[in-house]
UniProtKB/TrEMBL annotation:
This is EAL domain-containing protein. It comes from Actinoplanes aureus. The lineage of its organism: Bacteria, Bacillati, Actinomycetota, Actinomycetes, Micromonosporales. It comes from the Bacteria. Residues 1-256 form the EAL domain.
Length: 256
């Protein structure tokens, strides 16, 4: 409850900011996009991780406001980077959306308005959702996903492989790609079972026409193992952690 009160104040007082982590082509290390990750810098407690405050925001009914703020801020920033020539048409921003946001029937209209306003084409936007959205989602959520996809936005399944669910939703929903959870990437090149899981995920994803992004890539060994099984894109500390917009632009200005 205490954190909930503080979180309401954080939204009002500019304590939230968005950090950007590059998503790169494994072969070259050149960014193809970035993931927008919300950060809360509390005036006394310092940085509070999203793993702590996102669940609180969900329970307190604040995830809608926070999600809206993050999405607008990220799309605004992408518009600025595009107009300054820091990134090009082939660079996309990937934004996390919670189940609650995807149950709002107005979301596709709102997102399309924001893209127009900030001069961002739909193919430069990805939305990341956990598979629970599709497993538990209502018919409204289903319609929202189809409408977003119709706009041209990419739809990615985050933390892929951790949900213990049947995979039928990959065919029923207009998903365009999966992000392999970092728990499977950690053991690559060392643990044969992780190698086999990732190999199978990649084969299935490609058979379904889905893109694959490996998360949490930290070592050259992991990068090589991913490349060997046909993964094209990755994200992780090997290339860079999430950083505030000015640092991201400084670091990647000429590459992206
Ligand atoms: O990189 P980091 O440890 O900050 O992210 C932890 C998790 O918090 C991410 O995997 C993501 O699922 C979640 N998260 C980060 N930013 C957002 C956001 O803007 N909205 C939602 N719903 N979740 C986010
Ligand atoms: O959306 P998602 O929950 O996957 O957010 C990614 C989370 O993983 C963020 O919290 C981010 O800070 C974290 N992360 C990103 N790259 C790495 C990495 O290379 N190693 C580890 N351990 N964590 C990472
Ligand atoms: Mn994510
Ligand atoms: Na993830």
């Amino acid at each position: 409850i205490e954190l909930e009160v503080a979180l309401r104040a954080a939204l009002a007082d500019d304590q939230l900011y968005v950090a950007y982590q590059p998503i790169v082509r494994l072969e070259t290390g050149v960014p193809v996009g970035a993931e927008a990750l919300v950060r809360w810098l509390h005036p006394e407690r310092g940085l509070i991780p999203p793993m702590t405050f996102i669940p609180i925001a969900e329970d307190a009914g604040l995830i809608g406001s926070i999600g809206t703020w993050v999405r607008k801020e990220a799309l605004r920033q992408l518009g600025v980077w595009r107009s300054e020539g820091i990134v090009g048409d082939d660079f996309y921003l990937s934004i996390n959306v919670s189940p609650r946001q995807l149950s709002d029937p107005e979301l596709p209209l709102i997102v399309s308005g924001e893209m127009l306003r900030y001069g961002v084409p739909a193919q430069c936007v990805a939305l990341e959702m956990t598979e629970s959205v599709m497993v538990d989602g209502s018919s409204v959520t289903s319609r929202v996903l189809f409408e977003l996809r119709e706009l041209g936005v990419k739809l990615l399944v985050d933390d892929f492989g951790t949900g213990f669910s049947a995979l039928g939703y990959l065919r029923r929903f207009p998903v365009t790609g999966v992000k392999i959870d970092r728990s499977f990437v950690t053991g690559l090149g060392v643990n044969v079972e992780d190698d086999e899981i990732v190999r199978a995920v990649v084969a299935m994803s490609h058979a379904l026409g889905l893109s694959v992004i490996a998360e949490g890539v930290e070592t050259p060994l992991q990068r090589e193992a991913l490349h060997a099984v046909g993964v094209v894109n990755g994200q992780g500390w090997l290339w860079g952690a999430a950083v505030p917009a000015p640092e991201f632009a400084e670091r990647w200005r000429r590459a992206a």
